[in-house]
Model the fold of this input.
Amino acid sequence: MKAVGVVVEYNPFHNGHKYHLDQAKEQSGADIVIAVMSGNFLQRGEPALVSKWARAEMALYGGADLVFELPYAFAAQNADIFADGAISVLAAAGCESVCFGSEAGEIDSFISTLEFLANHETEFQAKIKKYNALGYSYPKSVSLSFEALEPDGSLLDLSKPNNILGLQYVAAINRHGSGLRPMTIKRKNAGYHDEHFSSETIASATSIRKSLFSNGSNMESIQSYLPRSSFHLLMRYKKHYGRFHSWEDYWPLLKYKLLQSSPEELATIHEVEEGLEYRLRENSLHATSFMEFMEKIKTKRYTWTRLQRVCLHILMNVKRSEMQAGTAKYLRLLGMSATGRAYLQKNKKVLGLPLVSRPSASKDLLELDIRASRIYSLGLDGDSQDRLLKEEFSQPPIQIQDKKTSC
Amino acid sequence: MKAVGVVVEYNPFHNGHKYHLDQAKEQSGADIVIAVMSGNFLQRGEPALVSKWARAEMALYGGADLVFELPYAFAAQNADIFADGAISVLAAAGCESVCFGSEAGEIDSFISTLEFLANHETEFQAKIKKYNALGYSYPKSVSLSFEALEPDGSLLDLSKPNNILGLQYVAAINRHGSGLRPMTIKRKNAGYHDEHFSSETIASATSIRKSLFSNGSNMESIQSYLPRSSFHLLMRYKKHYGRFHSWEDYWPLLKYKLLQSSPEELATIHEVEEGLEYRLRENSLHATSFMEFMEKIKTKRYTWTRLQRVCLHILMNVKRSEMQAGTAKYLRLLGMSATGRAYLQKNKKVLGLPLVSRPSASKDLLELDIRASRIYSLGLDGDSQDRLLKEEFSQPPIQIQDKKTSC
Done:
């Protein structure tokens, strides 16, 4: 059984993701699709709309066969650490290829861009340093430095977010020599950050989230952009837990945390550096919402994403010493189709990392992920909170039946 | 001008307190009454119903001439440290006597009980240790040990809470040799912990608080137990800030704090000892209210009060190293009558400690008190929270006019 890997967040799973899964399978000729998915908190440093369990279920109904959790130590990190974690999970799970969506849509430009960068390494790093010193954010410095190297037209456009992410996946594959074959497909229609719907069935997750929060009860407006299963699972979540999660739900906790911590304590938190602890404490004092707080603290130097991640690490009380990333240490199974289950049974002994399907047996290993689930549940009210909290330990991997009779 | 001192919490100020102030003045023959009052958090480890500003104003209208804040480092402590702080403030403020309410109602039994205990010191301490080892709480061990010493009938009844507290005041006066004259008056009618009203005008603060929380909008039921000014100030507070404070308002923050702290971090908090950190963390997980949590963690060994104080120190993130009590280091002025103001002007140069009337100029000194005010404000919602937060720095000492033309 051949497996293709995908790196996902599914916040929430929509028709564009479905297209990606179908294409990944078709173009790779794989029998199954293995997804590595961020847990309850995402790469941009924000809570997922719905829990990892609900999103894993959406992924399974949408065509994934196995869903593994990308550990917090990788998920809430910048793109290269995120890629290291994701690629190491997919390699350990036995994938033969990895397929990602990009604006470029063909893999050669990724390979040649990496070669070009390797040949201009010193110059490139020097330029990044220079732009950084001028006060540009890291991603902006990278993109400006790349431009300044005058790449020819066959190379990637590094102002596009999915090209950058894809480049990190290919680089991570090279770094870990994991023998995975990188593949890419062109993203359909909607740009990653598009806030407005641009076609009748494809919309970005950003625009869908915006609709979910702004339209309140009028959920029909997003129905055409999601597989029916995703829509149903979203509605079920809201009914069961009372809301979709957003940073605002955690703002009282973050504000409290900032007000009761000393600057010295804050400075031990991952990514809190360069005196950021004073800036954050001071500005938390009179902000009455997370958005207001973010507007107060943002500068040209720090991207919104970077600051959100800093806030998340503070909320989570994650010390610098706890974020020794490297590569993944375990495969945390969130869900499987019948085919996925057969694959696991067949390959159990050749997996590259220990398989964790019951967190209670691996509390130490999963400490950060368990903490993330606990903090995530605090965004809900009383009873809902307690129900979600219990899931982390009581929920076995989600299983769905499928028609593929397998092997 | 002769001053008599009183040690108070006024949660809220009621007719019994008014009687105490009148008697203190009359029996001491003093010209003014100086109150040292707990700030936003009280000796029992709980938030005050309304802020220290509102309570200081009640005190002034009720007959106090100067109100100083008992610093957090003393206020949220067991009785002997509480007494050390309070007596050192009153001594530094120039009081000639201290008058406290007690069940005994005459001062000789306090003096002779202290003498008796000094004569039986070794035996007494050994017995306390023994009862403690049997699993009794500290206050219970003290009371049992005292009984076991077979004191004669002229000594105090140490099963009564105000006798115990009074004994600590007299002991603190002896310790600091501050030359204050101890006086006591018999408490009127209602016992300290009485939950039900027992006369037509005197009720315990406990029963008044219970009414305030349980009756909701029907505030008239408590009106006869409070001076009109107190009742008016309570109502104004609720209207202005939206609620009276209770532990339940802080429960989401305490739960969050417990879930995101490591046991090692918790163990650095003041009064978290003997492995209590594990007991607290574990039991916070599925408690959905503060009351439920307290019921889960309480044991024979730890009094409710002690555990509430532990919870408060955790909420406040107060490290053991921050609670170097000893005696007070400053006089934080919360309010004054015209007479009180004249007294201060006259005695400014002979005060035993620096007078702080603007916290912004003494941020380091007041760090714990400022933190307490910030955390206290988080019990309110959005705008109210911000308004209360600003008061800590913008509010000058409260001043009221009075008829006494002074000096």
Observations:
- Residues 403-407 of chain A have pLDDT under 50 and may be disordered.
- Chain A has three domains: 3-103+185-245+327-400, 107-155, 247-322.
- The longest helix of chain A spans residues 161-176.
